[in-house]
Records
---
Amino acid sequence: KNQVEQSPQSLIILEGKNCTLQCNYTVSPFSNLRWYKQDTGRGPVSLTIMTFSENTKSNGRYTATLDADTKQSSLHITASQLSDSASYICVVRTTGTASKLTFGTGTRLQVTL
Amino acid sequence: GAVVSQHPSRVICKSGTSVKIECRSLDFQATTMFWYRQFPKKSLMLMATSNEGSKATYEQGVEKDKFLINHASLTLSTLTVTSAHPEDSSFYICSASPPFGGVQETQYFGPGTRLLVL
């Protein structure tokens, strides 16, 4: 069964600190992995997208890594800001004409003063 | 980047009434749009795939007669929740992808519609 698991479920950090969110997946056949940021009451916004051959991708203070062998990904946030408070969702797409997205349950991040 | 809009952003209705939610791709044409439902603190669950000019494809367990989907143009898909009940209260989100994006294609999500059925 295709699954995407994220950890931790929730996280509280001080402003300015770094943090790393984890994503493990069992989705197959793999096409790509995306990280989305979802503010409360809003739709998800894409942060990064990585294919099988990509190990790391950055978008400003966000850096995503992918290990396709171990089927793990991480999202590292540097110098966190209050506006980073949101849910971060890992989404994996399968290949083929029946391509589908499998969503993780997300990590709720709260950045405090 | 590409923009997907939804209307209304929130709606409150009485049990038994029908509610229509619109999803528009503002700067690209989308032959396929997707409708998701999200309950509090839960992940997005795909409800159906909306195909322009043809019938929608529903996920297992989603009642097609309850959640009517119409994709009459390349920029507009509508989801109608018929005879809504309190258990239909949820956050409904649509998404669309620009065509020809290939393996790097990104799905752009709408801002969501909060439905509360009293």
Note: Chain B has a mean pLDDT of 90.
---
Amino acid sequence: AQKITQTQPGMFVQEKEAVTLDCTYDTSDPSYGLFWYKQPSSGEMIFLIYQGSYDQQNATEGRYSLNFQKARKSANLVISASQLGDSAMYFCAMREGGIKAAGNKLTFGGGTRVLVKP
Amino acid sequence: DVKVTQSSRYLVKRTGEKVFLECVQDMDHENMFWYRQDPGLGLRLIYFSYDVKMKEKGDIPEGYSVSREKKERFSLILESASTNQTSMYLCASSMTGGNQPQHFGDGTRLSIL
């Protein structure tokens, strides 16, 4: 079974509107972390936001927020007030094991391509 | 800012060649990673290292090896390149600590002819 599933291969969003990118995960480990990355067409991977499995509140970073629903094993990224520069691939990733787990290795989803229309 | 530098942005090699991809980070990070990225498959972990001279297999290590002789440098080696290793290769580094993000290089687009 896929550990990280991003069901939306691509989507359009109107500039200044909000967009939600879906991410579901599968783990039996009680301690894990979820990351979102942005990859513009230039290719670099940019870290956006992190949510730990024991965090009580949903993570927020500027226009990015994470809708974390632990029971549903979902960690959807919400981008508010979309800008043209938000056009990119977005990847959800999971780290299993406690915060001291050696290596911090991540498992990535297949990604969602977002195109912001003016 | 963290800087992860990959030696080549684009590389073209021939089948059967031994190929070296180099990665250097300047933030004294303990952990380093090599991924390959293919359309629709996201990033898949090839190898990672959590200390000098330490290496661990990722999800797709077959056909690859790695070397980490110094903390700042992590090399990916294709022992005998094959056409199915044509891909984008991304290097990353991170501090130890589960909430620490990985920082990525710009990637090497490798074509095996």
Note: Chain B has a mean pLDDT of 93.
---
Amino acid sequence: KAGVTQTPRYLIKTRGQQVTLSCSPISGHRSVSWYQQTPGQGLQFLFEYFSETQRNKGNFPGRFSGRQFSNSRSEMNVSTLELGDSALYLCASSFGELYNEQFFGPGTRLTVL
Amino acid sequence: KQEVTQIPAALSVPEGENLVLNCSFTDSAIYNLQWFRQDPGKGLTSLLLIQSSQREQTSGRLNASLDKSSGRSTLYIAASQPGDSATYLCAFGGSNTGKLIFGQGTTLQVKP
């Protein structure tokens, strides 16, 4: 069974631009969660989607948004990029509930110049 | 506010040693706790998941325990190997939080 895949793996953007990241969960998994990882703040929860609905949301500004499609694939979008948005963005999928075992993708490394 | 603390932040041991990584949490309303491993620049690999009704879980040389009353979990690694070198993260799943809350991790180096 294929694991969680994320595209692209690396991105370089400039301040003010916007970016879209993609996550394909493990087949059969309906929950997708997104996390931001930085050296200073560690891993922080962005949001979780289940069956195309956002179920939970972390404490991030409205510039961070996401969606989930009927095939469970998910995208997250960051508008008006800031230098502080440079991070490793990880998505995780699980079967059903958020608290089921989480399987993580390799992440997308975003650098904002 | 729920806090998850991992001690120590870094650990260096010679190959073959048994070691214990600690994770503490402040919220008693726990649903489960997960331990992950992260290699540099990579995603997280799930190691063990302990439900709130369980006391411990084992997988190979790894054993994780959960003590809800003291708000602690420990990850025991037996007979450490250089390939165990990585950052180990614990994640708290609270009954009321709707999300996983991660500790800052313990970076382990096992020297040959």
Note: The first strand of chain B starts at residue 4 and ends at 7.
